[in-house]
Amino acid sequence: MVTASVASATSAGGLAGASVQVRAVSHAFGDAGQALPVLDDVTFDVPAGETVALLGPSGCGKSTLLRLIAGLSAPQAGRIGVDQVRVVGPDPSRLLVFQDPLLLPWRTVEANVAYGLEARKIGDGQERVRQALRMVGLAAFAAAYPHELSGGMAQRAAFARVLVNHPRVLLLDEPFGKLDSLTRMTMQEELLALARRHAFTTILVTHDVEEALLLATRVLVFSPRPARIILDVDNGLPFPRLRDDPAFIARRREILIALGHGEEFAR
Amino acid sequence: MSDVAGSAVGAVAPVAVHSVFRPWWPGVASTAVWAVAAAVTGLLPDHGRAPAGQPLVECEVVIAILSALSVLIGQAGWFAPLAYHGRRIAVLGGAVAVWEIVTAKTGWLPLPFFPSPQAVLDVYRVDSGRLAQSVFSSLLILVPGFLLGAVTGFLAGLAMGWSPEARYWGNPVIRLLGPLPPIAWLPVALFVFPTISTASIFLIALATAFPVAVLTASGVTLVDSRLYDVGRTLGASEGFLIRTIVIPATLPHVFVGLFMGLGASFIVLIVAEMLGAKAGLGWYLQWAQGWAAYANLYAALAVMSVLFSGVTMALFAVRRRALRWNRETVEW
Ligand SMILES: Nc1ncnc2c1ncn2[C@@H]1O[C@H](COP(=O)(O)OP(=O)(O)OP(=O)(O)O)[C@@H](O)[C@H]1O
Ligand SMILES: [Mg+2]
């Protein structure tokens, strides 16, 4: 059922993923006098079509990094590129699913999903909107207002609002954090299948080590603020990935130790 | 099939017999109270010279009869909207009876300041033409003035909320001129504008525009800035952001401003009409007072309250439609 809806959603086509370059990016908030450093010399590359997961303690600067890649603000030092072209502002080919759903409360679910197509005057988007809603399981709630949705449904609607635009780079800020564990698994499978079919590039911020290892080809672990990369795990496990695979367990242990949880949970 | 229907009737019937007729008590109370009011009006002797109370008695009897009918149908579902007001209608009858006693029947409240209910009722019979004319000419000032003020206030507030430059120039104007009661401009408006009507329209627009501008501007600054991030990443231009995010997010505040502006407009309207106009409800009040026609005064006040309450309800109906998405919509 899952794969069928994905197949129909992707039949509309779209561009393949773009590569992302993050080079020596540093960023701070506040005035020069009492600046709050958030990112410290972060460098990594994401090849087109790959999925990279970013892990790190709360408040270390992960959301800030995603905002910079999305082009919502400019890094104070370093440069960010997509397909070797410098990012200078937001663009619908690089889309961010925020930590909160941030639906527009005055628009129905359907109209929220259609927002990007409407903004870019892409006519005839109704079928695309319907497909996106079907994909996240909200077809029956197309005419509902956001206040009539549960937290998880709202987050799925936010997902559909982004996917309907066929982005080349998908920036996900803990997109499944608010979902129950079963819905989360469904959405993770959907994301995997989608990423494979569309071949878009994904940068996924998450708190969940297992989620990172299940979805990503590479896992970057950040230090507490200001964020530096303290561990870079090449996660080339074949699909389907199993949580009890010894290689999986070894990587999870390595990451948990890097995050400072070696004693209790890493055994 | 028929078997089932038959057994169903059989099952229901004993219940129907058991539940004997239950009167609708607010209807009973209303019948009694209005009958007493009619008796007081029609049977007690008048004190001094009071207008013949016949039409008032007729009204009271009609209401008493309708109340008596409602005793039978008060429980019906379709009657519910009116039934809701049942106890209020009953108490109103008592108020009319007391009013009749302290004016026409005993003269405890002195004439001409406190006319009897019959005298007020007579105004609607005798002077309805002039009252209708007054309502019409008041609306002819209120509606254009309010709409003009709403539009200019909204646009000014939007500009001030969105553009720092507009805020820089708008703020001192709002700070210094906002606290001035709009009616204080009347002497100025009277010589700037060719007619008292246009002057009044301008003052009402002013009275509406200030609160609307202030609330719109603060509404714009209260919009969650993350929604702009959502819009900008999805490819929205600045104009599209304003149309699809700023304006809808600000609308709840705009309606608060409109509500405040409407209240100020009523004041401006009546005072301007009292001070300079030759028509309108404010002028009617002034005219009635000049002739010591206090019954006309009360009759006009009642019309005014119904009119202004109706206009306010219309505003809230628009608001309810515009803010359907908002779960916290307050009723008025
Ligand atoms: N607009 C801002 N102005 C000032 N400080 C900010 C701003 N945005 C974020 N910060 C600060 O930057 C730091 C990193 O914030 P960020 O949201 O990137 O963390 P995060 O890694 O996403 O955390 P979490 O996992 O809890 O979401 C925090 O200390 C936060 O207080
Ligand atoms: Mg975050």
Describe this entry's structure for a reader.
Chain A: GO terms for molecular function: ATP binding; ATP hydrolysis activity. Chain A: It comes from Gluconacetobacter liquefaciens (Acetobacter liquefaciens). Chain A: It holds the Pfam family ABC_tran. Chain A: This is ABC transporter ATP-binding protein. The complex is a heterodimer of chains A (267) and B (332). Chain A is 35% helix and 22% strand. Chain A contains 10 helices and 10 strands. Chain A has a 6-stranded mixed beta sheet, with helices on both faces. A 4-stranded antiparallel beta sheet of chain A has the order 2-1-4-5, with helices on one face. In chain A, 43% of the residues are buried. The model of chain A is unreliable at 1-13 (pLDDT under 50). Chain B is an all-alpha fold and 332 residues long. Chain B folds into 2 domains: 2-124, no CATH class; 128-322, MetI-like fold (Orthogonal Bundle), CATH 1.10.3720. In chain B, helix 7 packs parallel to helix 10, helix 7 (128-162) runs antiparallel to helix 12 (238-276) and helix 12 packs antiparallel against helix 14. The interface between A and B is medium-sized, with 28 and 22 residues. The complex binds adenosine-5'-triphosphate and magnesium ion.
Oligomeric state of the chains in view: heterodimer
Please report the two chains with the greatest interface, counting residues with C-beta closer than 8 angstroms to the partner's C-beta: A-B, 28 and 22 residues
Query: Sheet bearing the most strands of chain A, described?
Result: 6 strands, mixed
Secondary-structure arrangement, i.e. CATH architecture of chain A = 3-Layer(aba) Sandwich
Report the top-level CATH class of the largest domain in chain B: Mainly Alpha
DSSP helix fraction of chain A: 25-40%
Count of separate DSSP helical elements of chain B: 14
> Radius of gyration of chain A in whole Å, from Cα?
18 Å
Instruction: State the helical fraction of chain B.
Output: over 70%
The CATH homologous superfamily of the largest domain in chain B is named: MetI-like
The helix-and-strand class of chain A reads alpha/beta
Order of helices and strands of chain B: HHHHHHHHHHHHHH
Total E-strand runs of chain B? 0
CATH superfamily of chain A: P-loop containing nucleotide triphosphate hydrolases
Strand content of chain B: under 5%
What class do helices, strands and sheet pairing of chain B give? mainly alpha
| Beta-strand percent range of chain A | 15-25%
What is the domain tally of chain B?
Answer: 2
Provide the residue-averaged pLDDT of chain B: 89
The helix/strand order of chain A is HEEEHEEEHHHHEHEHEEHH
Query: Low-confidence segments of chain A, ≥5 residues, pLDDT <50?
Result: 1-13
